[in-house]
């Protein structure tokens, strides 16, 4: 089997017009009662498996946020690994992004690299930029993996530091410039820009004309899809991933959650296709 | 049993002149062969237990970097939890810091909060500042827990963004100001400043006269202890934690590693006491 390469996998998804990424942010508290067993790990995995089975032909990527799988002594982390294995089995061409937002000093990142790129074997991760490129080199050195650097995050208070101006340019744009012009020597970098900030998204696209942009914040966070797609498209009419979690995976709180998730994913996919 | 409070625990350690924090960065590859069993989790826990038993009367805190305990399918994470439980058993007055460097959007951080403050029940954590205070509120709301915000990190490339000037002031100082004046309403915030940057440490102390500063980078990273202590001391001659990992826990690669760790810890503790 050829080694998986994130950019190649993603490129093939874009070839098929697939820009939607389903975020499996599977908060145990919100999982429909019909799925629940006494076991948290089993419950989360059963929920995720049904969602993947119901959506894999529609999506260009899956994203799992590690916060929902952190160990509480109840098998949540096992559900994370099982979900990744299940995606690779039923949809081997769909890349898997782990939204882990990690970053430590260089030698220490090796532990995260082994866990994420070895044990979990995800295709891409998200990282914090604050410690600089030198600290992230152990991630960046994995040319086949996608490294999405937080640039302009989707939260309401994102601007506290990200909008501070450095010689007239906000920090998030400086981050985008460094990543585009200095960090991306292996061609594996991307940027995270929240859908809640479409103007900033446009500014980032100008700075990084060809870099993949991961865009959370559509759906529950009320980002504007049309503005985002217009701002994020590159010269080839591609280059972005729209990540939607709650509005798809919790579209119904009933036993029909998987069908409801499929309908919601179809709606979003259709909306994106109309904008292309 | 009274609820543990990080600042109270730390204050009692400072009362006893204890400023040394042993970093249990227990890289499996570096653990002496004499400790190794076939099982990674058992090996790491046996190593940590001996180190804790050999040092707990000397130290003011323990710090565990989560990167060394990330799941690789081999019980590493279990070793993290067992180590924390062991520290609380043999040294219930010594606070435990989890160096996890996390940060996500607000509602998502709840998963990290449950894992770190619930399941693992550590006394303090480290977080990235990039997403702003609003995103970190779920951590900050835990008044009894210490929240150490990365300010000036110890790695060689730390300055890439941290030294960028905003109206004449470097970003790391702006972060220190925001944390000191806006984030710290529950009195539970601290800052991380690398020992490799003693001048920056002094600048941060001026900005945050009373906030605890966690200082990694002495030992293997060659920070200057005398300069750091001079720069970090607050008006009461306290207010900091010197975190040393490799130079203590890997002081010997032989079967005498625990005794060697104790001697190394005694040496560092003695050096710090001479500087007070």
Task: Please render the helix and strand layout as text.
The structure is a homodimer of 276-residue chains.
Chain A: H1 6-15, E1 20-23, H2 40-55, E2 61-65, H3 76-90, E3 96-102, H4 106-119, E4 124-127, H5 133-140, E5 146-152, H6 159-162, E6 165-166, E7 169-170, H7 171-183, E8 189-193, H8 198-207, E9 213-216, H9 225-232, E10 240-244, H10 246-249, H11 257-274
Parallel strand pairs in A: 1-2, 1-10, 2-3, 3-4, 4-5, 5-8, 8-9, 9-10
Antiparallel strand pairs in A: 6-7
Helix pairs in contact in A: 2-3, 2-11, 4-5, 7-8, 8-9
**Largest β sheet strand count, sense and barrel closure of chain A:** 8 strands, parallel, barrel
CATH-assigned homologous superfamily of chain A: Aldolase class I
Helical percent range of chain A? Answer: 40-55%
Low-confidence runs of chain A (pLDDT<50, min 5 residues)? Answer: none
Strand order of the largest sheet of chain A: 1-2-3-4-5-8-9-10
CATH topology of chain A: TIM Barrel
| Total of DSSP H or I helical runs spanning 4+ residues of chain A | 11
What is the number of independent domains of chain A? 1
The most extensive interface, with participating residues per chain, is: A-B, 57 and 57 residues
Q: How far do the termini of chain A sit from each other?
A: 33 Å
Q: Write down the secondary-structure element order of chain A.
A: HEHEHEHEHEHEEHEHEHEHH
Overall body shape of chain A: globular
**CATH architecture level-2 label of chain A:** Alpha-Beta Barrel
Give the CATH class of chain A.
Alpha Beta
Strand content of chain A: 15-25%
């Amino acid at each position: 089997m050829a080694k998986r390469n994130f950019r190649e996998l993603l490129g093939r998804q874009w070839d098929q017009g697939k820009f939607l990424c389903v975020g499996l942010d599977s908060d145990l508290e919100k999982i429909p009662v019909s799925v629940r067993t006494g076991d948290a790990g089993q419950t989360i995995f059963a929920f995720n498996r049904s969602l993947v089975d119901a959506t894999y032909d529609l999506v260009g990527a899956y994203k799992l946020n590690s916060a929902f799988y952190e160990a509480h002594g109840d098998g949540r982390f096992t559900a994370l690994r099982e979900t990744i294995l299940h995606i690779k089995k039923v949809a081997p061409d769909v890349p898997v992004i782990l939204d882990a937002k990690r970053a430590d000093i260089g030698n220490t990142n090796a532990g995260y690299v082994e866990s994420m790129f070895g044990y979990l074997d995800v295709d891409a991760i998200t990282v914090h930029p604050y410690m600089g490129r030198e600290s992230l080199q152990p991630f960046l050195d994995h040319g086949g993996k996608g490294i999405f650097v937080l640039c302009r995050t989707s939260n309401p208070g994102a601007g506290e530091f990200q909008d501070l101006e450095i010689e007239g340019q906000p920090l998030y744009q400086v981050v985008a410039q460094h990543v585009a012009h200095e960090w991306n020597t292996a061609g594996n970098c991307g940027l995270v820009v929240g859908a809640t900030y479409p103007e900033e998204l446009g500014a980032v696209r100008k700075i990084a004309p060809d870099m993949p942009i991961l865009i959370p914040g559509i759906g529950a966070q009320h980002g504007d899809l049309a503005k985002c797609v217009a701002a994020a498209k590159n010269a080839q009419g591609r280059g972005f991933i729209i990540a939607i979690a709650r509005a798809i995976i919790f579209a119904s709180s009933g036993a029909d959650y998987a069908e409801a998730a499929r309908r919601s994913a179809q709606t979003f996919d259709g909306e994106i296709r109309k904008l292309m």
